[in-house]
Amino acid sequence: MLPPGPSQLALLQTLRIITQPVSFLLSCADRYGDWFTLRVLGPQSPPVVFVSDPEAILAIFSSLADQLELGRIADVFRPLVGNESLIMQNGDRHRQQRQLLMPALQGERLFDYTPAMTAITQAAIAQWPLGQPLDLRRQMSQISLAVILQVVFGLTPGPRYRDLYQRLDQLLEAITDPLYSLQFFWPALQQDWGNWSPWGRFCRQREAIDALITAEIQEGRQSQQPRQDVLELLLAARDRDGNPLSDQELRDQLMTLLLLGHETTASALTWAVFWLLRHPDCLNRLQSELVAIGDNDRAIAKAPYLDAVCREALRLQPIALIAQPRRVASPLSLGGYDFASGTILVPCVLTAHRRAATYPNPDQFQPNRFLERRFSNGEFLPFGGGQRSCIGMALSLIEMKMVLATLLRQCQIAEVSQRPVRPARRGITFVPSQDFRIQVQQWHNPSAQTAIASV
């Protein structure tokens, strides 16, 4: 027997989850609890079961992984990230690639990237006009792209950096547009009829971007100078047969990190600032912690309340509403239910993060939750879980901390929104609606600000 769910026609359920995903999923969780079944994949849809139960989510991520298939859900990203991308792989190939890439994206190496993150943020904020409304989401997007280009790609400011920045910025803005992004979901629209056709323009954009990335990869192979970026480590990586990554493999992994780490981190940062401005007590506590720490980047990255603020922002408004769906390959039982082959199981990040049994007063912003206890991957899963968790999650979290800390240390900001702010879809993420505006009220160190702005 399947979990309960709405009795509406499949078409109506599909429309609701497309147009009102946050309210629809939360209303289903309120009515049906940790398990509910939807019909949202067309008239012949297999059952799609959304799961919030922590133990069941952990089982999906780990002990039941061999009984579940990932299917072709990531294919929508293939034109952007390429065939060699980690997210396109399954089985042994996926495990081997993940083991090859992880050393560059975790552990002590992450602290080598913090000075660049701080400097990029300082330079960007120095250009913000005093006392004028700012679209913070857009500003964070520009900072995040600059961080990826310097920390991941290893680019330094110059002609190639500026060219790639502009082209990627245009592409990443375009793919969040619903009409533009339709062509990634419908292969029939992927027809290159020259520059006048939408897909043709995308192909020309991709070719120009690929040429710039390939040039950087080839220059990195030839360079004898030490670098402190992710590309350097990927260039040095060897598989179990001693072979390096090809130019195409490197290109595809870099584009994967860009696509999955750019808009998501920018959106998470925007939400963190949103909640802090709405909760002055939390903001004051965080500022006090940062003042006590001083200029030590490593100490900032490890600051407990800063970490709690970032995690609570990711909990309360997760950037992705669901983790990667799994298809039941052979019949299994879980949570008291029996699932036939073909059933789709969806760990639901949004409803798991709003589960009152896990998070008392779940609709409130309370960073202290993450100081008082540790949450399992079945309870807190902003980056997914198991072998399919986001490979750049540690890098994204440390970037959030460094950018947020730099912003709060550099200036005093206030919200100047004129209308209510609500979650709004932006590509694969959910961000504060465009009504959210901030302004710089004063610089904490005007003389230093002038020096930064002149760099």
TrEMBL record:
Can you provide one Gene Ontology molecular function annotated for this UniProt record?
Answer: heme binding
Q: Which residues bind heme?
A: C390
- State the Pfam families in the record: p450
> In its keyword annotation, does this UniProt entry include Protein transport?
no
Q: Which UniProt keywords apply?
A: Heme, Iron, Metal-binding, Monooxygenase, Oxidoreductase
Q: Classify the source by domain of life.
A: Bacteria
Q: Which cofactor does it need?
A: heme
Q: In which family does this protein belong, per the annotation? A: Belongs to the cytochrome P450 family.
What name does this protein carry?
Cytochrome P450
What species is given as this protein's source? Answer: Synechococcus elongatus (strain ATCC 33912 / PCC 7942 / FACHB-805)
Q: What is the lineage of its organism?
A: Bacteria, Bacillati, Cyanobacteriota, Cyanophyceae, Synechococcales
